[in-house]
């Protein structure tokens, strides 16, 4: 079978005849059991489909579901309840990445790291730097600092340096500079890094927290920037801030 035929076979697994309900999520084991593809072939295929928006993965159980590219082509199906913070953030990043021709990353904190749980890439964007599942140092990335800014200074220190335990005598220069920057991020609601991942690539990020679910998600746009003195991406910041505010209003209304 061709790659296209294999991809169609995967998507067919999500079809639920006789119902208008949203497609269920499936684990890798579910798919491997129901398809005749070798596991190595299936794994490569799922990675490719996820990178193109045909599939997405749940940030908690890592199951696969229909991606935002396909969902955007069909009218929304009725849902039993309101969309979650993760679903709203993913939808916003899909739209922003297409509008600004860049790559969007949906991220969560994992101890002192940022974990990429979903990726959205415009067909016109430069190649994505990171794959879904990658872990990045929180204190050195825009999205990591946006997420850390959701916590108090004590919580940040406990997360980054759990063995310290107390603030007394805590004066390591790197952490002090980080706490100062987080204070700025809290005040403005976003963070920006020029040349964050490699020369010429910049990142702009915000974060949202759902207190009821006790979860935080970072929204990051990664794009090519014109060198160290390139113009600040005011258009992307305005779009990202607007999307973040709209999600917050819907979640907290």
From TrEMBL:
One of its GO terms (biological process) is negative regulation of DNA-templated transcription. InterPro entries: GAF-like_dom_sf, HTH_MetabolicPath_Reg, Tscrpt_reg_IclR_C, Tscrpt_reg_IclR_N, WH-like_DNA-bd_sf, WH_DNA-bd_sf. Pfam families: HTH_IclR (PF09339), IclR_C (PF01614). Residues 1-68 form the HTH iclR-type domain. It comes from Sodalis praecaptivus. This is IclR family transcriptional regulator. Residues 62-253 form the IclR-ED domain. PANTHER family: HELIX-TURN-HELIX TRANSCRIPTIONAL REGULATOR, ICLR FAMILY, HTH-TYPE TRANSCRIPTIONAL REGULATOR RV1719. Keywords: DNA-binding, Transcription, Transcription regulation.
